[in-house]
Amino acid sequence: MLERIRIVLIGTSHPGNIGATARAMHNMGLSDLALVAPRCAPLTAETVSRASGADHIVHSARRVERLEQAVGDATLVVGASARSRTLPWPMITPRALGERLPEELASPEARVALVLGREDSGLTNSELQRCHAHVHIPANPDFSSLNLAAAVQVLAYECRQAWLGQQETAAQVEAPPSQPLASHEELEHYFAHLERTLVAIGFHDPATPRQLMARLRRFTLRARPERMELNILRGILTATEQQVEHHE
Ligand code: SAH
């Protein structure tokens, strides 16, 4: 289970935080690290020093330019946020996230990505809106922003506790096989298709968006659609597009 949980760091500026993240991950048995557009050289002497023997995690980390490339195959994407944003999104605690993991990762194809933001500015609204849910560490409300690697430590700890709990109950009955959920990439293709169609039928005007796409995203992501369900919705969009062309 732990090998299918990925830590994704976006735009990190301090190599020491990358090293400390690797250490926090290895301490808790996580190994999959992705670095999205780091704003520093990820592997410096400081990285190695702060990793304290876990720098192999940084060596094997995937380095990509865009969030999509780091979470494309993930069936659950959770963004870690130090503060609440304008459009409320499903918000969970690290404990609740851990409790969800055994079921989320029951199918061998399932992948969970935990996305953390920049030291200075966190995650952007557009990055947060690409997540199924947000996780907030309920810290002191007057001083709620943790150091990046410390936030990774808290989340990784809850992942490990959930995994340990699952080991204890391993003898229990197997969960029924579930249908494969849509991946992040499949969802993004669907949202792009939906937006094109809504523009074509005159329902959506990108010049006055009024958060329409954000609200539709939140609604769809809350439903956790299966791949098959998304295929049905895309079929409806294709048929709608064909009708529009037919009447033009
Ligand atoms: N100053 C930034 C926070 C940067 S901390 C801001 O105001 O948004 C760097 C990252 O650590 C954040 O983007 C978030 O992913 C994570 N983080 C820090 N504190 C957190 C908290 N209390 N709950 C969840 N994630 C947190």
Automatic annotation (TrEMBL):
Reactions performed catalytically: cytidine(32) in tRNA + S-adenosyl-L-methionine = 2'-O-methylcytidine(32) in tRNA + S-adenosyl-L-homocysteine + H(+); uridine(32) in tRNA + S-adenosyl-L-methionine = 2'-O-methyluridine(32) in tRNA + S-adenosyl-L-homocysteine + H(+)
One of the GO biological process terms: tRNA nucleoside ribose methylation
Key words of the record: Cytoplasm, Methyltransferase, S-adenosyl-L-methionine, Transferase, tRNA processing
Subcellular location: Cytoplasm
Any one Gene Ontology molecular-function term assigned to this protein's record: RNA binding
Keyword Transferase attributed: yes
UniProt keyword tRNA processing present: yes
Coiled coil: none
GO CC aspect terms: cytosol
Enzyme Commission code: 2.1.1.200
Residues making up the signal peptide according to the UniProt record: none
Domain tRNA/rRNA methyltransferase SpoU type: 5-157
NCBIfam families named among the record's database cross-references: rRNA_methyl_1
Subunit field text: Homodimer.
PANTHER family: TRNA (CYTIDINE_URIDINE-2'-O-)-METHYLTRANSFERASE TRMJ (PTHR42786:SF2), TRNA/RRNA METHYLTRANSFERASE (PTHR42786)
Function as written in the Swiss-Prot or TrEMBL entry: Catalyzes the formation of 2'O-methylated cytidine (Cm32) or 2'O-methylated uridine (Um32) at position 32 in tRNA.
Sequence similarity: Belongs to the class IV-like SAM-binding methyltransferase superfamily. RNA methyltransferase TrmH family.
Protein name: tRNA (cytidine/uridine-2'-O-)-methyltransferase TrmJ
Gene: trmJ
